[in-house]
Specification:
- The protein is α/β, with parallel strands linked by helices and 372 residues long.
- Helix content is 31%, strand content 26%.
- The chain has two domains: 208 residues, 3-Layer(bba) Sandwich (FAD/NAD(P)-binding domain), CATH 3.50.50.60; 141 residues, D-Amino Acid Oxidase, Chain A, domain 2 (2-Layer Sandwich).
- The strands form four sheets. An eight-stranded mixed β-sheet has the order 5-6-4-14-15-16-13-17, sandwiched between helices. A six-stranded mixed β-sheet has the order 8-2-1-12-19-18, covered by helices on one side. Strands 9-10-11 form a three-stranded antiparallel β-sheet, with no helix packed on it.
- The protein is globular.
- The protein starts with a strand and ends in a 23-residue tail after the last helix.
Length: 372
């Protein structure tokens, strides 16, 4: 099968790689360079446990998290790229009795051993992560939370895809999806018609524009996330620290990543004083000693967001050969392995292998069946 993948972020590169391994002839189009947008902007956290225990999204996230150790080794073996896979877990600070209650609710009924969940009191916090502010009275620690260098991960997937036979056409813009007689026949890229048996739309926040090219409306929009990095040598923190307002991710490179805002401002390509100052205030409130560290860089990314906050994955209704994998929002890095596996299985065999009804495009299909 000849497949065109549109979008060279983490989802597009990972799925192109798996499709090539399954025997497909794959061409991947990326208007810039692989990972140039949201994928490289991400902090790379792999946190599989959500607020809704046992939800379809959490099951998908846990399945992807379970794939990561093998994925990391496979990519290292095939490309030599170290994606800086760190497995030290995340601290979720608790400040009062209400925080403790919410934490207890969150972990109720979970397999504590599998996910490495521990309750820390004040003394534990002081020993395990002494830089945390004294107002932190306890913590929920989740050893299952890992993290990777997202930039390196995208590069590794792109290199592995190329080595597997994927034709990477970086710097090539797809302007139109060719839909004729109820099926897709490929794309128009830089003015040229490029034929394919199947097309996968994996262009993140830009997927909606591609849908518009054949008269459809996809309910995906950008959610800007601003971030910054501090010099972190010697390291102040050992673990990732995460609250509702901010997360802090120590990288082996010597940076401490601080993120991230969630802003529905369209494609406004700017870092703002308000965004960065709010992140710094929240971070220093958690770890006062960060106030003296130099700022290394600031940046932003556009996460693809759907109205229900869930990914959109599956065949496009009523158009044969057209598929979509987008709207992973803040979880693109985490969900890349499972998305690549299930989309490949679905496109090649006709079945996804796991239940994905909750993520199907049909949930946004309007009554006239022309838009979603």
């Amino acid at each position: 099968m000849k497949v065109t993948v549109v979008g060279g972020g983490i989802i597009g590169c990972a799925t192109a790689y798996e499709l090539a391994k399954a025997g497909c002839a794959v061409t991947l189009f990326e208007r810039a360079t692989p990972g140039a947008e949201a994928s490289s902007a991400a902090a790379g956290m792999l946190a599989p446990l959500g607020d809704a225990s046992g939800s379809p999204f959490e099951r998908l996230a846990v399945a992807s998290w379970q794939l990561y150790p093998a994925v990391v080794e496979e990519l290292r073996s095939r490309t030599g790229v170290d994606v800086e896979y760190v497995t030290r877990g995340t601290i979720y600070p608790l400040f009062d009795a209400e925080d403790v209650r919410r934490a207890e609710t969150r972990v109720a009924g979970r397999e504590m051993r599998e996910f490495g969940i521990e309750a820390w009191d004040t003394a534990d916090v002081r020993v395990r992560e002494p830089a945390l502010a004294t107002r932190v009275r306890g913590a929920m620690f989740v050893g299952a939370d890992h993290w990777v260098n997202s930039q390196r991960l995208v590069v590794a997937y792109a290199q592995a895809a190329a080595a597997a036979g994927v034709i990477l056409r970086a710097g090539t813009s797809v302007s139109r999806i060719i839909v004729e007689d109820g099926r897709t026949h490929g794309v128009v890229a830089d003015g040229d018609r490029c034929e394919a048996d199947a097309v996968l739309l994996a262009a993140g926040a830009w997927t909606a524009a591609l849908a518009a090219s054949f008269g459809a409306r996809l309910r995906v929009e950008p959610a800007r996330g601003q971030m910054l990095a501090l010099t972190h040598v010697p390291p102040v923190l050992t673990h990732t620290v995460r609250t509702d307002d901010v997360y802090l991710v120590p990288r082996p490179s010597g940076e401490l990543l601080i993120g991230a805002t969630v802003e529905r401002v369209g494609f406004q390509r700017t870092v703002t004083a308000e965004g960065i100052s709010s992140l710094l205030a929240a971070a220093i409130g958690l770890v006062p000693s960060l106030g003296s560290l130099p700022i290394v860089r600031t940046w932003y990314g556009f996460r693809p967001w759907a109205p229900d906050g869930l990914p959109i994955m599956g065949p496009w209704p009523d158009i044969e050969g057209l598929w979509v994998a987008t709207a992973h929002f803040r979880n693109g890095i985490l969900l890349a392995p499972i998305t690549a596996h299930l989309m490949t299985e679905w496109m090649v065999s006709g079945e996804p292998g796991v239940r994905v009804e909750e993520f199907a495009p049909q949930r946004f299909l309007s009554r006239d069946r022309s838009t979603f």
